[in-house]
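ARCHIVE CARD
CATEGORY: sequence design from structure
SOURCE FIELD: tokenized fold
FIELD CONTENT:
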């Protein structure tokens, strides 16, 4: 079932890319492993998906021990932190994650910088933006993005790659389009300001119910869980 679901997802990605004249390889599929068994993850890996997303450090620890993630010489696996990261979990997170999608505050950035400096690592990150302005939702407000970005790029052990958002929960995927479009425009704005001396290219947006719309709006990373396993 998982292999068939993976093939269907890849087909839908290719079709969405074709609609907006993008190559399918411009989109990376991240399988979100929240609450999944080791056997389910093995099937995902066997299907050729080599980017694994984790919502919790505790669960990631178990998965990483099982599959020797990251840095294994057997497979070119990449492990992503896609959930909220608490500052007290940063030391362990730096040992496991290739990319942290959910940097959402100066306080967290400072914790990552401090710990990364201590272990001589440069940590790739995305800034999470609360594009829907929902109360109680993680992510920096759009109005605070430039200030946080400027602080982050001044930290030598953090490398900013782009932005992430979680769209509001909606019944019709089309209703999520404004949130994705806003994130794309926010990234373009950072590039116009030359926040860093390279182009920020990563847009982590789109999940099982809305990833095709996200692709049409420029997503480069998709965080998909349920569609793999249902």
């Amino acid at each position: 079932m998982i292999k068939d679901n993976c093939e269907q997802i890849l087909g839908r990605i290719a079709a969405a890319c074709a609609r907006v004249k993008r190559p399918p390889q411009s989109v990376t599929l991240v399988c979100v492993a929240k609450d999944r068994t080791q056997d389910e993850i093995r099937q995902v890996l066997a299907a050729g998906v080599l980017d694994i997303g984790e919502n919790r450090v505790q669960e990631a620890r178990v998965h990483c021990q099982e599959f020797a993630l990251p840095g294994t010489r057997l497979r070119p696996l990449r492990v992503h932190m896609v959930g909220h990261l608490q500052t007290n979990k940063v030391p362990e997170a730096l040992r496991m994650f290739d990319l942290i999608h959910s940097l959402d505050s100066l306080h967290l950035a400072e914790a990552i910088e401090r710990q990364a400096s201590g272990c001589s690592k440069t940590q790739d990150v995305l800034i999470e933006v609360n594009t829907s302005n929902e109360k109680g939702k993680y992510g920096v407000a759009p109005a605070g993005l430039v200030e946080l970005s400027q602080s982050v790029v001044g930290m030598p052990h953090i490398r900013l790659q782009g932005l992430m958002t979680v769209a509001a929960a909606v019944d019709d995927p089309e209703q999520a389009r404004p949130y994705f479009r806003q994130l794309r425009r926010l990234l373009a704005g950072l590039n116009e300001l030359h926040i860093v001396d390279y182009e920020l290219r990563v847009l982590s947006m789109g999940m099982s119910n809305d990833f095709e719309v996200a692709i049409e709006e420029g997503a480069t990373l998709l965080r998909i869980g349920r569609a793999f396993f249902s």
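CARD ANNOTATION: Confidence is low (pLDDT under 50) at residues 69-74. The chain has one domain: 2-229.
SHELF: design records, drawer C
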